[in-house]
Amino acid sequence: MSAPTLSEFVLANTALTPVPLVPEVLLHSAAEAMDLWELTDHDQPPFWAFPWAGGQALARHLLNYPGLVRDRKVFDLASGSGLVAIAAALAGADSVTANDIDPLSLAAVQLNAAANDVTVTTLPGDQLDSDALGADVVLAGDVFYDAEITALMLPFLTRAAARGALVLLGDPDRAHLPRDRFREQARYNVPVPLTLESTETRSATVWAI
Question: Which CATH number is 6-208's, of 3.40.50.150, 3.40.120.10, 3.40.390.30, 3.40.50.720?
């Protein structure tokens, strides 16, 4: 038997489920993280298989305030499942590009976009030296979970804001969030998987640079 494709792997290890804080969106989500992580044989956890708290808050915010992205070109950094990108598309963005370095993430994004009947373009590889395709809006959900990652992400996001892009971030008070660099926009109580967060609810904030 041939090896499964990336899309087949995602489908075999997830179920299509409404996002707790954003039930308008369906995602192919996993029930348990560690077993799936072992199957992927990746250094990083399967970020694409779960609706993380920061992403849920940011997606909810976009659907609550669609004028933030309506008719605008959107770039979603470290897209994971594509939740934030899908919310932007549902909110009326002119175009949405989802970027992630994990090929399984991009497969999940395409499956999730199709499940929600929206168009999201996927862009592979490290784009942190790029200009985010000149996007009008740059989005990032839950990217400050690690000091090294934060040090890589922050210059990219700061450059995007400096050239005039609206930069919005969703974060559940991760330890490496540089709060002094951002302005708080809204706060949400987010249902989260107990196995991931050791709690059933996290408070997450939407920030702007």
Answer: 3.40.50.150
